[in-house]
């Protein structure tokens, strides 16, 4: 019985929805016809006469107050809509309409898949959204003590956000700690140090750990946060390397003796790789680029499976500094693979190499006359591919947008990744003659190839919609986050803005010219109701007088 009652209610609701969807026009005209027929019993004419007399007795001050109040209310709605749009990226009125009114008016698609398949599709979409908005460790992140802190001392601004530093703390706990640290006093102190929020407390804990033992992770913390120059950081990393290699050799011999030894060996491996990578970065920053390249190549050969550090991106940047373009192409051939995750470094470096072959002789006027050659077409396609992957990069490379220090974590395809790439690679684009000119002439053509509103991509997956929120968490507040695609203002913001302006103008005109606005209002209303009066006269002339008399007596 309950199921039958529920089915009947659903059928009744669907019938009502169908009638409102298709028959509302007929209902509207029927209601107008009934109101006109019953105008005598309802005394509509008398009421209209009374209303018109009341309106004629009103002073212009009333109309000024009315239009002023309307302007104030619409202005308040406009301010709220604008605030809601800036904070949440959507219109409050549209959201309420879609969420609450649309289901009542039959906006739900009846041809939707089953609940199980819908739930599965929603879960897949959520998983894809999470994977697209995954935050990655910046392979070229700067040193806190020697670079980030120096920026703070000079400018008084904090280049790192709390969210970014919190992610770094989680990375340090993952890479540099294990379950057996409590068995060694120095490692136990460092395990607590990585969880400390106060930088001075972390540095003090590292010094305390070094008093007990030669602890590699303590040297890492001091090199990252206490050293004020790259030279000091390199010295500390060399001491960390000596301690880390000893721990690595000991744990390597015991890794097969149990799960705890295996976890300790994995931790020691992460520590050793991190130290060698940072030493290579120190050599690169101090001008010993060839030494840095050798250290990175040796590290990639020794630990080929540790791809989480993305050492190949450090290697690409160092090779570009040496202008070893053949070696850069060899690295790209290995890592620019369809099965591997892409990055702005890979896509834009590939575009730079192809642009280098044609950019010195490229001229947009000549290309428009004779068309693009095969090499030029390949370069343009590579630029379009790179811009589709990360559309924020060109404005930084073309210096249309100011650069800031890159964060310690980046969001692929986001503004944070664009800043990190341009910060280190802008000099390489400037070194290739004509490369930035070719980029300037061709990068905007990418957006003509991508379907709008980005329901699907051209060469990559559709651009994720979550990048703006994540980038605002990663980048400092003084930086204006680049947003793609540009959000269009919702209709109701434009509507309320127009309504507020129109009513404010009416209030001002009514206050300044009351008599003229009264004449204008009467002329407007008479013109507005002229078609309705014409229709009513035609209806009275067509219908027989006897029938019309009987209908009015109902």
TrEMBL record:
Alphabetical keyword list: Membrane, Transmembrane, Transmembrane helix
Keyword Magnesium listed: no
Membrane topology: Multi-pass membrane protein
GO cellular component: membrane
Ranges that cross the membrane: 21-42, 62-85
Compartment(s) of residence: Membrane
InterPro entries the UniProt entry points to: ST7 (IPR007311)
Keyword Transmembrane assigned: yes
Family named by the database record: Belongs to the ST7 family.
PANTHER family: SUPPRESSION OF TUMORIGENICITY 7, SUPPRESSOR OF TUMORIGENICITY 7 PROTEIN
Listed name of the protein: ST7 protein
Lineage: Eukaryota, Metazoa, Chordata, Craniata, Vertebrata
